[in-house]
Structures are given as structure tokens and as C-alpha cells.
Amino acid sequence: MAENKKEMPPELKERLRAGFNLDWRKELRKSLPVKERMKIKRQKMPERSPEVRNQDFFEVNKGLEARAAVEEAKRCLDCANPQCVMGCPVGIDIPTFVKMVEIGDFEKSIRKIKETNALPAICGRVCPQETQCEVVCNLKKATGTPVAIGNLERFVADYERDKGEMFIPSLPSSTGKKVAIIGSGPAGLTVAGDLALKGHQCTIYEALHVPGGVLWYGIPEFRLPKNILEAEVDYLGKLGVELKTNFVVGLTATLDDLREEGYDAFFVGTGAGLPNFMRIPGENLIGVYSANEYLTRVNLMRAFAFPEYDTPVYLGKKAVVLGGGNVAMDSVRTAKRLGAVESTIVYRRSRVEMPARIEEVHHAEEEGIVFHFLTTPIRFIGDDKGCVKAMECIQMELGEPDASGRRRPIPIEGSEFIMETDLVVVAIGNSPNPLIPQTTPQLKVGKWGNIEVNWDTMETSMKGVYAGGDIIRGGATVILAMGDARIAANEIDKYLQNHKK
Amino acid sequence: MAKILKRERLVPNIHLIEVEAPEIVRKCRPGQFVIVMPDDKGERIPLTIADWDIQKGSITSIFLVVGTSTHKLANLHAGDEVPVFVGPLGKPSEIEKFGTVLCAGGCFGIAAIYPIARALKEKGNKVITLLDVKANYLLYWEDKLRAVSDHFSISSRDNYYDCKEYIPYSLKNILKKEKNIDRVVSIGCTYLMYTCAEATRLHEIKTMVSLNPIMVDGTGMCGACRVTVGGKTKFACVDGPDFDGHLVDWDELFMRRKSYFDDEIQSMCYWERKNFP
Ligand SMILES: Cc1cc2nc3c(=O)[nH]c(=O)nc-3n(C[C@H](O)[C@H](O)[C@H](O)COP(=O)(O)OP(=O)(O)OC[C@H]3O[C@@H](n4cnc5c(N)ncnc54)[C@H](O)[C@@H]3O)c2cc1C
Ligand SMILES: Cc1cc2nc3c(=O)[nH]c(=O)nc-3n(C[C@H](O)[C@H](O)[C@H](O)COP(=O)(O)OP(=O)(O)OC[C@H]3O[C@@H](n4cnc5c(N)ncnc54)[C@H](O)[C@@H]3O)c2cc1C
Ligand code: SF4
Ligand code: FES
């Protein structure tokens, strides 16, 4: 499902060049020699202490102070060939925004980012920079520690929001074209923002009662405070985007029904909402959750404030989370915050294969999360009331690498053992949401239920219907969803210009 | 936000709610349900669509007052709004020309089975309706159901009606007399559906039940509603809610429905204390 690696497109090269050659940039480069820049230490992200934060749902990272941000920006070498930009799925002009931070012009800096990324406060918090822009940063090659690009992105985005004045670009006059966007996750929000700026009338349809997709119901408050998401959605409202929640496309109306209502183009960003289970005995015992259900109860339905909010959630004393990705980390840290005495990750491979962000693993460890590697459950055991009380596990060893390039775990015969638990969260991945494909038979889907697209245009097998994000990739990342969305928005705009009703 | 057009008590503890939902009306079919959230702090709960009015663009559901959410709903009035009223969810019931179909409903299922009986009748089936009530003053919608039935009887535990027993016994008696029943549809509380399915098992008459596991999103995203049918895990909100009652793992369903027993009592007490100190 991965797309091909691309050369730096000439358009991008030119865009970067233009910034690089500006006089103030030349001056700035000269003002501090590279050797001096390389001596500056990476500024630490201030965090709330682990013993305090693992009792509540407030944000872990506090954000850089302005002074630290400027200091951090000085570390960037303003390279002639900025590798960081190639690592960014949406091609943010990183050196330009960072250098704007260095000179203290935070306002211009955030506008620079927003030219290519509509949701910087979110990306600054949840993007895996350590495997994208920061991993290829030239400073990392030189000194071992890259520029903290993500922390700087977050800093300028927060600066703008805290000031309370969101910059609203001037809108072109309406083109009279209508676009229906299905799903309000990062993919849908990005398409809506981009197309609104081009003068098209956008309506987002969302099945749940609040917009945001995984950003709302999946990623917890302590990593992504909901007021940040709300601010981003408000901003779309100011651009004239209409939002229809409580509307399940496929059931409340099909894609064809919407077409009859006069929509000219469609974007499907319905995500990977279908939870995978282990398919082992006892999985339907009480107290065994999918991560989606567990996190939805807590984040969307506010079960952490039960009984003020009506939705309950199981509070385990000995919580076990199966999996090693971000979803698993979020679940295990949530269980800890809800009072688990012991909150454990059980992962079938070893530490290095864990797909979760390093920062999340690190934070989890600080918060007292226990890790059991090379272990997988083979059945769940219940008590007489049908509640889970233990699971039988088996130990694994690593064999040859599989299709994903990670070494395949193989069970060690005779190594079975019993682990006590009263709350299990299964976080072993999600599959693409089947509702739209099921109710739109003309839409071509791939082997995993993912909607098939032309990767250059994001167009599906249906004319005028585009798709992006987790629905085409399976569980991926926020920024990849946004990258798809950006391409789709451009193509939809082109399509609409040639399209007659 | 969806506007309440009407909320009335039909019989003790069972209420009707009519909600403005023009989009749902256009699409809904018998056997589907909606998810309702009574207020901003409420839970998302499923209710079967019991009737709809195309002219008014409204959906009607009938609910039994059991816990916090249904108490909250019972306290709403015409003109109030609910933050979530989404649907139509789930697969519609199979409506075909089967021949003779027996519809067995009890409690809120009397209403839930009504659109199914009506559609089956319209398709040309012979419809035998059998309702269950604990006592005569708990019967509602009798006229509506009579109007779509070829045979109509009521099972109760008082001396008002012909069948003075719990519904599966009446069902068995009917099966003895009527040899050509092609299908049974049963909706109501879990126990009612379970016993009806058991009553028809030996006769090998296909018996469809509308399962009612705990749900959250109702769109297949969370898996809260998983039930085991024919040895396979299904999500009731998207694969159902109708399943073959002879294949359902009833023990598991009974068990899972009790997942939050203590929490529900706590929630109810909290709500009562707050509103009726
Ligand atoms: C717990 C968790 C933690 C994560 N952490 C990170 C992280 O740290 N960094 C990172 O980059 N990524 C992370 N991810 C992954 C990331 O959130 C997703 O890749 C991203 O949200 C995908 O965006 P999307 O717009 O494609 O879909 P989604 O965010 O899934 O949004 C899809 C939306 O469409 C709606 N929808 C679905 N079907 C319909 C329909 N038929 N009609 C109307 N609406 C519909 C859904 O309700 C949902 O709101 C995490 C995911 C989870 C679950
Ligand atoms: C597809 C479907 C259709 C239904 N149709 C109707 C209907 O037409 N009329 C009607 O009266 N009832 C119906 N129900 C049952 C109804 O949803 C529950 O009675 C209601 O949720 C109880 O909520 P409460 O807060 O009042 O009670 P609570 O005190 O919270 O719970 C009482 C019992 O209801 C069940 N329940 C609790 N929360 C949920 C939930 N989120 N989803 C499902 N069940 C839950 C539990 O088994 C619990 O023991 C239906 C259920 C399903 C799944
Ligand atoms: S690669 Fe690193 S040092 Fe070079 S421009 Fe990008 S962020 Fe700055
Ligand atoms: S209610 Fe969530 S999947 Fe069915």
C-alpha cells in the first residue's frame, strides 16, 4: 500500500531556493558560523513530571518557551540542500519557517507552515518527526541530534492560537461547485480547508457527533488536548465549510444519493475504523476491549468522568494492552490514568520492532508502564461472571524478517504461562472502514478492503470520487492522510474547473 | 440536534418518542435502528425504528424505561432537542414472500416488530401475530398490529386474554395447530427472544431475532456489540441486528449485556439524586 519514493520535484526545489536566496537569510547564515550553531544543545521539551501526569489527563508536554524556541532555531544550518523537507510528506518549507523563528517573527513562521499544512498544532504534537523530517536532518548526520522541527512547529502554532487571532486568508469568490467530504479525520479536514480556499462549497459528513476522527476519539487528551482540535475545526467553519455530524454516508444517504443532491465531486476519508481482534478463545469475555472501544468510551464519551457522564468503562487494576504501536501506548497510558495499579504492554516482538513513536514509549516508561516483550496470548480465561481474570500466554523468539521487514515472531513450544489481568485492550491494528465500499458497489477495493486509488491523483475507480488517508492505506499516520488529502484537493480543483454540470 | 415532536407514555414504563429526522425517513426500512444520545453528557443507546411518517419527516421509537438514558428520554418534551439521533443503522430485516410468518413480540418489541409485520403483510405473506404482555394494562398498539395481521393473539399472565402463559408456550401451541409456518420473527427482551428461538428449534423453523447487545458507535467501529453467531464473532450493529436465533450464543449475549451492571445502578442513583434530591 505504500507509495513510491519520489525525487525532489522541481517545483519544490524552486520554492525552497527562493527562500534560501533571500537577503535576510544570507545575512542570518553569516551572523552565526556553522561551528557555533553545531555547539548549541538541543532544547529540551518541558514535560510534567511522570508521577503527577499519570494521574490525570492533562497534556504531558508543556511546549517550548519563546527563548528556547529561538535558541533551537539557531541550531538549524539552513542547508542549501535541506533533506528535512524531503522527509516531510507535505513538503513544508522547514528551513524558512525555522529561520523565521530564529529572527523572532513567529507570525510569519506559522503562515509559512500553513501554506502547506493546515493542521500544524496537531502535527507538531503527533507526527513521527523522528522517522520523517528529523531522521534525515543534516544536523543529525553531523552531530547526532537533529533540529527539533516538530517542537518548533508546535511552538509557532500554539503561539498563534494563544494570541487568539487566527489568520483568515481572504477567500476567492464562490465557484458555485459543491464538494462532499466524507469523514472528518485529518484527511477530510485538510481537503475541506484546501478546497474552501479555492472557492468551492464544501460539506463534511461525519458519522459521529463530533468532528476530528481518530484525533478526537482515538488520541487521548494528554497527547492532543481537544481544544486544539476544536480551534482547527472552528477555523474551517470560518472558511465557510459546512459540517454535518450524525450522518453516516452509506446509510443516512449513499454516495449516489448525494450526487443527486447536486455535489460535483467527492472525497472519501473514512479512515481505518474496523478493529482487528486476536481471534482466540475467550475474546468476548467482559473486560476485553478493542482499543477503539476503550479509547472511544474514554475520549469521545468522557467515561473518565463517569458518573457525571453516563458512559461507563471498565477500570482494571491489572491492565494488559496487546500491541506495540501508538494505539497500544495510548491505551496503556489511559489505563494507568484510570487507576490501574499495574498497566502492562504485551508485545509479540521485541522493543526495536515496536512501531510506536519513541517519545511515546519513553513517556510510557517514565509513567511506570511495564513492558513484556516476545509474548503473545493464546486464550483468555474468565471467572464465573464472564469477566476476564487471566490470560494464557506463550513466549516467542524472532525468526527471519517478514514482508514488513521486521523479524517474524515464532512461538516457543512449551513456554506457556498464565498472566493475571482484569482488563485487556486489544490494540493490534485496524482495517479500512467497509461502510462506503459496501454501499457503493462501483467502488473498487483492494485485498485489505482499502479503497483503490490512482496514487498520482487519488482518484478512485469512480469519476469525480477521490479518497485518501487510512481508508486507502490501512492504519497509517496523520501526516500521510494530510499528504493524500493535499494531492486530492489539487486534483479535485482541476477536475471541477473542467467539469460541467 | 434533532427535535422531539412528541413524547408520551403509552403504558406504565413504556414511552413513545417521535423525532424530526427527514433524512432518516427517506432511507429507513423495517428492522433498522437509530442511536440516540439524550443529552450532552449522555450515553449513545440504540432504539429500533418502530414507525415513520414520510409527510412529517419523523421517526417514532418506543422504549422501556430501565436506566439513566431511558429515564432521561422519558423526561423530554415536544420541542426539546437531543444531540444525537443518527441512522438508519444496521441491516434491514429480510422481507420476502416466505408464506406464513409468525411475529412474536413483547415489551418494546411489540412496536419494533410492527413495521416488519406490516412489510411482510404487504409482500403477501400470511402474518400471525403473537404478543406478550405481563398484564392487560401493558398492551399498546393493538389496533395497529391487528390491522396488519391475519391472525392475532396475546399471551399474558392475567386472565384477560386467551393465552395465559409466557409467550414461548403460546408459540408452541400455535406451532402444534399451524403446520405450515415458514418463519418466525421474534423481538423483545433477550430472554423472550431466546425462549422463542428454543421453542422453534425442534420444529426447524427459521427464527430471526433482533439482538440487543450493548453498543457505542453503531457503525462497526468499536466492536462493543460483538455477538457469536454460528461460532463466528459478528458485530450486531453492522452485520445485524437480525440473526438466526438457532445459531446465536445466548449465554454470551446474556453475560455481555450485564457488563456494566454495577455502573448502571451507580449512574441511575447519581441521576436521581441530582434531579430529585
Ligand atoms: C489511538 C491512536 C493513536 C494514534 N497516534 C498517532 C500519532 O501519534 N501520530 C500519527 O501520525 N498518527 C497516529 N495515529 C494514526 C492517525 O490518527 C490516523 O492515521 C489518521 O487519523 C487517519 O486519518 P483519516 O482522516 O484517514 O481517518 P480518521 O481519523 O479515522 O477519520 C475518519 C472519520 O470518518 C468517519 N466516518 C467513517 N465512515 C463514515 C461514513 N460512512 N460516513 C461518515 N463518516 C464516516 C469516522 O467517524 C471518522 O471520524 C493514531 C491512531 C490511533 C487510533
Ligand atoms: C439494535 C438495538 C435495538 C434496540 N431497540 C430498543 C427499542 O426499540 N426500545 C427499547 O426500549 N430498547 C431497545 N434496545 C435496548 C436499549 O438500547 C437499552 O435498553 C438501553 O440502552 C438502556 O439504556 P439505559 O441507560 O436506560 O439503561 P442502563 O441502566 O444503562 O442499562 C440497562 C440495560 O440495557 C443495556 N444497555 C445499556 N447500555 C446500552 C447501550 N449503550 N446499548 C445497548 N444496550 C445497552 C444493558 O444490557 C443494560 O443491562 C435496543 C438495543 C439494541 C442493541
Ligand atoms: S536538514 Fe536540518 S539543519 Fe538542514 S535545513 Fe533542515 S532542519 Fe535545518
Ligand atoms: S456498536 Fe461499535 S461496532 Fe457495533
How is this structure best described in words?
The complex is a heterodimer of chains A (about 500) and B (about 280). Chain A is of the alpha/beta class. Chain A has three domains: about 150 residues, Orthogonal Bundle (Fumarate Reductase Iron-sulfur Protein, Chain B, domain 2), CATH 1.10.1060.10; about 160 residues, FAD/NAD(P)-binding domain (3-Layer(bba) Sandwich); about 150 residues, 3-Layer(bba) Sandwich (FAD/NAD(P)-binding domain). Chain A contains 22 helices and 16 strands. In chain A, a hairpin with a 5-residue loop joins strand 10 and strand 11. Chain A is globular, with a radius of gyration of 23 Å. Chain B has about 280 residues and is of the alpha/beta class. In chain B, helix 6 packs parallel to helix 7. The radius of gyration of chain B is 18 Å and the shape is globular.
Largest sheet of chain A: 5 strands, parallel
Order of helices and strands of chain B: EEHEEEEHEEEHHEHEHEHEEEHEHH
Low-confidence region ranges of chain B: none
Q: How many domains of chain A, as an integer?
A: 3
Low-pLDDT runs of 5+ residues of chain A are 1-5
Q: Average pLDDT across residues of chain A?
A: 91
**Number of DSSP strand runs of chain B:** 16
Name the biggest interface: A-B, 38 and 43 residues
Structural class call of chain B reads alpha/beta
User: Major β-sheet of chain B, in short?
Assistant: 6 strands, mixed
